Amino acid sequence: MEIFIPAKFIYDCSTYRVKDPGRKSVQCALCRNKECLIGKNCSVIKSGLDYSGDNLKSIQISAWLESDPTKRTKLEEIAIYSKRLGYRKIGIAFCIEHEREARLVYDILSRYFDVFSVCCKVCSIEKESLDIRKTVESEFEAACNPIGQALLLNDDRTDLNIMLGLKTGYDILFAKYSEAPSITLPLLELPSTGDSEIDFIE
């Protein structure tokens, strides 16, 4: 089924802009031609891209994972990526509702890396102190603390942080304050992971 896009929003690669006078940014989602696939640069930043050093190694590893025919879970891909980049310390920032899954990820990754884990209720901040309504009838209810999770993993000097089950907004705050790169590990993949070994193909 062809998706109809109003003519004024059809992207013209020859102008590098959307055909709308009030807009100046590229709009690849509206482009029908995708001439970038055949060598045309539709932007003005190509000369400023820094694919050297670790950035070059990162994109090379990513391209290898993308093209390799072996079917892997996201956790396996994260482990292989981290190993090839020389990462030693992996952080896990998880929602306390998913502590079982966090333990599974910890048990698997700790065979290959130094793993540090922080749950969302760390520091035990009272919800009322942040003007957040309680969801249960109790004298005390702890708020989620994504900034605290990030700062504690920063103290551990992790090379990469995995976000596991963090709700919308909490993940954004965590990524904002994390000094290490952060990646979300989908919970739906974990049942297929099992307590398995990871095959690090050299």
What does this structure look like?
The chain has 202 residues and is α/β, with parallel strands linked by helices. Helix content is 27%, strand content 12%. It is built from five helices and six strands; from the N terminus they run ββααβαβαβαβ. Strands 4-3-5-6 form a four-stranded parallel beta sheet, sandwiched between helices. Helix 5 (170-177) links the parallel strand 5 (160-164) and strand 6. Helix 4 runs parallel beside helix 5. The longest helix has 15 residues, at 53-67. The model is unreliable at 1-5 and 7-11 (pLDDT under 50).
Task: Please indicate the percent range of residues in DSSP E strands (runs of 2 or more).
Answer: 5-15%
Judging by the overall fold, what is the CATH architecture of the largest domain? Answer: 3-Layer(aba) Sandwich
Radius of gyration: 22 Å
CATH class of the largest domain: Alpha Beta
Weakly predicted, low-confidence segments: 1-5, 7-11
* CATH topological fold name of the largest domain: Rossmann fold
User: What integer is the average pLDDT?
Assistant: 86
Q: Give the biggest beta sheet.
A: 4 strands, parallel
Briefly note the structural class of the backbone. Answer: alpha/beta
Order of helical and strand elements? EEHHEHEHEHE
Please report the number of helical segments.
5
Could you give me the name of the CATH homologous superfamily of the largest domain? Diphthamide synthesis DPH1/DPH2 domain 1
Distance between the termini: 43 Å
**Number of DSSP strands?**
6
The best one-word shape is globular
Query: How much helical structure, as a percent, in the residues?
Result: 25-40%
